[in-house]
Amino acid sequence: MKFTLDMKLKDIMAANPKTVDAMQEMGLHCLGCPFSVNESLQNAAQMHNLDPENLLEKINSVEQGEMSAQAVANAQPVGAILQADKQTYAIAPHIPAGVASPDVLRKIADVAEKYNAPAIKVTSAQRIAIVGLKPEDVPKAWEDLGMDPGHAVGLCVRSVKVCPGSVFCKRGLQETLGIGMELDKRYHGMVLPSKFKIGVAGCPNKCTDSANVDLGLMGTSKGYHLYVGGNGGVKPRQGNLLLENLQPDQLIPVVDSVINYYKETAKQNERLGRLIDRIGIDELRERVNQTLSA
């Protein structure tokens, strides 16, 4: 069987387990992650700065067989991300809206100390990562934490970043924590054609990058503005302002409409912004307006 760049890693590994050795040799060390293995070979190559054609040639040259014992040992523990030393892992418990109780903070600190983690890092996605764990300690750390690993990688809704909003911030014009928690509960981890990030900001300062993520809400004195199609990365894209001054009871139906449209329309591995660049924004705007008028 000849593999292609659009095939998912998990399908390649299932067809010929020995390809795991070749992929690890090329630098794909995330093959134990349940989210990464759903990515295509093309996307995996891009994420690891590899030449896709060279990787494909390497995979197709592997003889049929089982993966080696070393490849099994090197497989990434579930819920962990390999670090730069290629020997240790980071885990990042999911903290909805970035709001943590003292008990959660103590638990994270206790686990980090118990397993001799060299660092604790607050991430850009409002999680707290325990960095530098040995692979054999990762499952034990998760058991001790008793927390959701969250979805830090893969083709799904990843982070829902939320600012303090009008509850805490003197500049906040709209409430954010309640809507942010609801968005997180409703969408975090939802499988989509590509990765998808959400930001909720309480004022035009947009501290949560709401104009630079796939879907962003920004508070104004009259309601919430909705931005769609932003992203960072190698080819950053500014989000499009889709609607202005939405009211709180309109937010969930509108976000549902945007995400459902994206699920139905996008190609595999196509971010929302690239979909808009390809077919325009008029159809999406019409779909959302129909939702508002229903």
From TrEMBL:
| SUPFAM superfamilies for this protein | Nitrite and sulphite reductase 4Fe-4S domain-like, Nitrite/Sulfite reductase N-terminal domain-like, SP0561-like
Q: Which residues form the DUF1858 domain?
A: 4-55
An example molecular function term from Gene Ontology annotations: 4 iron, 4 sulfur cluster binding
Where the record annotates domain Nitrite/Sulfite reductase ferredoxin-like, the positions are: 83-145
What keywords is this UniProt entry annotated with? 4Fe-4S, Heme, Iron, Iron-sulfur, Metal-binding, Oxidoreductase
According to the entry, every stretch annotated as the Nitrite/sulphite reductase 4Fe-4S domain falls at 156-292
Q: Which InterPro entries match?
A: CHP03980_redox-disulphide, DUF1858, NasD-like, NiRdtase/SiRdtase_haem-b_fer, Nit/Sulf_reduc_fer-like_dom_sf, NO2/SO3_Rdtase_4Fe4S_dom, NO2/SO3_Rdtase_4Fe4S_sf, NO2/SO3_Rdtase_FeS/sirohaem_BS
Q: Which domain of life is it from?
A: Bacteria
Q: Which NCBIfam families match?
A: prismane_assoc
Protein name, as recorded: Sulfite reductase
